[in-house]
Every structure is written in structure tokens, then in C-alpha cells.
Amino acid sequence: MKRLLLLLIVLGAFIFQTQAQTDKRYGFTATIRVPNTKKEVLLDSTLSWVKATLPPQRFTSHNIDETENLIAGRGSFTDDAGTTNFDLTFYFKDNLVDMVADNVAYSQLGRLPKKERTKGTPKQRTKTYLTKLSSSLEKHLTSPQL
Which residues on adjacent β-strands are paired with residue 65? Predict the structure, then answer.
């Protein structure tokens, strides 16, 4: 009986330690449909939006592949809860743009004391930021100038 209890304690400690070391990561996907638009036009328009909207300190593009129809890079978002880094990729098909944020990781760099922070968790704030980015991209792609 003592061995079983000891085994359960060791197993519980192992599970607790494993869960504590797991990074809390999640992804974000937004799909934007633009009727009667070719993927080449969407790629060029999205690239101009990225250059106009995301400054180099917020988004570093590391792959623009016109044959694979994607733009990939590393994005960041900083607020009073700290800094969030994520992989940001745009995939293109005819009439469709997928904006995918993946490998989201939080850092306490630049974090304000708890009393000075606004409401919300870093995950909620990052999701709100990415939602605003996707709606801005959608407005840009669906504007009459395209």
C-alpha cells in the first residue's frame, strides 16, 4: 500500500512538472474572401498592406514566395502586459487570403506592474490585435481601388 501511494505521488509530481514546462501557445486564423480577384493581385496588394501597416520592428518578412503564393515572417506585439512574438503567414488562392498566426509566445519584457496594467490577459490582447489586423487587411483588399 505504501509503495502504491509513493508511486502515485511520484507520478503526480511528474505530471505536474510536465504541465508546468509546457508553453502556453495557440494559433489564430482569419480567412478573407475577395470575389473575382486573382491570387497574384491579392499577393501584391497584401504585400503593399504589410509594408504600409506593419513597421519593420513589428513584422520581419523572411519568405515571399510567389510560386508557393505565400508571405511568411515573424511578428510581434507589445503592450503593458509584455511582448508577444508569433509567426505570421499569408497564404493565397484565387479569391481567398488566409492570415495565420502560429507559435505565439509571450515574454514579460516591458511588462508593467500589475496595478498599472489594463484588463485582459496577454492571450486576449494578442487575439484582439490580430483580429484588428485581419479586419484592416480585409478593408484594404475589398476597397474599390483593388
Answer: 70
Q: Cβ–Cβ contacts within 10 Å for residue 130, how many?
A: 23
CB 86 within 8 A of CB 126: yes
Across all residues in the chain, what is the average pLDDT? Answer: 84
Instruction: Mark out the alpha helices in 22-121 (DSSP H runs).
Output: 39-53
The DSSP call for residue 111 is P
> Hey, what long-range contacts does 101-104 have (CB within 8 A, 24 or more apart)?
101/27, 101/28, 101/29, 101/75, 101/130, 102/27, 102/28, 103/25, 103/27, 104/25, 104/26, 104/27, 104/28
In the predicted structure, residue 114 carries a pLDDT above the cut 90: no
- Provide the residue type at 40 as one letter: E
